[in-house]
Amino acid sequence: MRMKKFINDPRRIVPELLEGLALAFPDKVRLAGEGIVARAKGKAADKVRIVTLGGSGHEPGLSGFVGEGMLDYSVAGEIFAAPGAPKVVEALRQACAGAARALLVVLNHAGDVLTANIAMQTAAREGLAVKMVLTREDISGGPNPDDRRGLVGFLPVYKVAGAAAEQGASLDKCLEIAERMQLNMRTLAVAVRTATHPATGHPIFDLGEDEMEIGMGQHGEAGTGRMQLKSADATATIMLQMLLDDLAVSAGEELLVVINGAGATTLMELLLIFRRVAQILKEKGITLARSAIGEFITTQEQAGFQMMIARLDEELIRLWDAPCNTPFYNRI
Predict the structure, then answer these.
(1) Where are the domains of the chain?
(2) What are phi and psi of 165, to 5 degrees?
(3) What amino acid positions are annotated as catalytic residues?
């Protein structure tokens, strides 16, 4: 099928989409260099900056969460590709200007991690006060945490670390909070239809009309196996049980649940999935403490969703509830 998208020069997609973001939300974000999105309003010099990096084509992730109470800087790469280390170093220099400190949040994808490691080495040589946390909560990667990809779990990590930074927490405390959040979350994705690469028009993968694949990666990486397309209730039941087992959730615990649309899945479908998740948690005596349903990181017109659960404690709930003001996530 021929790709149908409203784009201009495929080589200019990223700078044009970032320009559009800054023009649409001038009270929240600004462009601070090529591929660098920064929060529009300044921050006290003694407060930690939260920085991230990642490929474009997944909007609103990741630059859509720059703003008060979440990210201070986002470094955007080309479509489905990590940015170069020099851009990340430049963002870290800006973040650490005036002896400020920064926490770099990186999703566990090979290109992103390679870029981040090079940037961290340069930052260390320059004496910048930067620490890094890696999100890796996709259980389809297997039991080894190093093999688990970072999916929509970035959202609660940005949220709680950003809130802690906004409240004046130290860099070590922001890192501890981000690590605690990341260690207590699990994600699983499912896809029923592929996306096309907006610069080439090529499909990312193939699925039969009556097939779905649980464990699909952010870019169409193979999952745990294909199966016949199932109902919303059946799909939610399979995925949630896998997540609960992996996180070893017990009755009486409090969970955050995020249902993230992949790009072409309707809100109707996401709410049907969430309904079944809420029912199951109630049946098991597990508290649905907080939730978020919508599109937070997408893959163009891919159809499917990501289900994320996270174990919460009193401090994480307080930080999740703290105010934030970004283009695509706000709490008052």
Answers:
(1) 10-183, 185-320
(2) -65, -40
(3) 58, 219
